[in-house]
């Protein structure tokens, strides 16, 4: 593995205050958060969420900031209308994961991106994956069958080395990692780096000290260390996509 399967730390976090600007609508048969005034024929970002899903306030606010940077942003429901709600770690994560098969989840992601490309033919598609969603984001920059142009992931889980090897050298990958992370620990992080270097990938990996798994999507922003890391990770993503979409 390039990162371990989701664990207990993936099922807890903090709520971020704010009022989302976008709307939810059914797109290609999937409940989707949509935000941004940009044309879907131009620059698009698709966010693949952690276990809290596409109605979680935190990820909606992130999408709005990406939209403010000039992107049309979509957050499809990849959790079969079964998101985790509790932020206190009380959910039985093994039971939840058993109901969220990776093959079925990929099928939802593949279909959404295929239909998006068929309908609008965007000039650029970026994908972002947080935790659970990172696996499916990385799959979308496969040199063989990926449908996106560029990818950014934060504190990934469940990504395999074969999925990293499949990236090739033409679809860039940005990784935002936490210093304290049992899901993406130092040894797997280094293995991932070694593999990306071996295949000649265009990549960037940022390691944020003093933060834990989940910081970019559901960290405690009352802590200035976490707040900095969260905001910097998002700015890095915007800069990354801006660079490769021009």
TrEMBL record:
<dbReference type="Pfam" id="PF01738">
    <property type="entry name" value="DLH"/>
</dbReference>
<feature type="domain" description="Dienelactone hydrolase">
    <location>
        <begin position="30"/>
        <end position="244"/>
    </location>
</feature>
<dbReference type="GO" id="GO:0016787">
    <property type="term" value="F:hydrolase activity"/>
</dbReference>
<dbReference type="InterPro" id="IPR029058">
    <property type="entry name" value="AB_hydrolase_fold"/>
</dbReference>
<protein>
    <recommendedName>
        <fullName>Dienelactone hydrolase domain-containing protein</fullName>
    </recommendedName>
</protein>
<dbReference type="InterPro" id="IPR002925">
    <property type="entry name" value="Dienelactn_hydro"/>
</dbReference>
């Amino acid at each position: 593995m390039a990162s371990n399967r989701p664990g207990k730390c993936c099922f807890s976090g903090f709520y971020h205050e704010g009022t989302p600007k976008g709307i939810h609508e059914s797109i290609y048969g999937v409940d989707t958060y949509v935000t941004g005034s940009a044309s879907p024929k131009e620059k698009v970002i698709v966010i693949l969420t952690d276990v809290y899903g596409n109605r979680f306030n935190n990820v909606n606010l992130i999408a709005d900031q990406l939209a403010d940077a000039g992107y049309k942003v979509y957050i499809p429901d990849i959790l079969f209308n079964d998101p985790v709600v509790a932020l206190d770690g009380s959910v039985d994560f093994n039971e939840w994961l058993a109901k969220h098969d990776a093959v079925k989840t990929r099928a939802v992601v593949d279909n959404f991106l295929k239909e998006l490309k068929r309908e609008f033919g965007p000039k650029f598609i970026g994908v972002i994956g947080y935790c659970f969603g990172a696996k499916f984001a990385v799959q979308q920059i496969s040199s063989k069958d990926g449908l996106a142009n560029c990818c950014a992931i934060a504190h990934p889980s469940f990504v395999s080395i074969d999925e990293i090897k499949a990236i090739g050298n033409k679809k860039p990958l940005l990784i935002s990692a936490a210093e304290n992370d049992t899901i993406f620990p130092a040894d797997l992080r280094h293995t991932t780096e070694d593999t990306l270097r071996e295949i000649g990938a265009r990549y960037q990996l940022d390691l944020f000290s003093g933060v834990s798994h989940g910081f970019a999507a559901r960290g405690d922003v009352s802590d200035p260390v976490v707040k900095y890391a969260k905001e910097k990770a998002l700015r890095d993503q915007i800069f990354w996509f801006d660079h490769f979409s021009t």
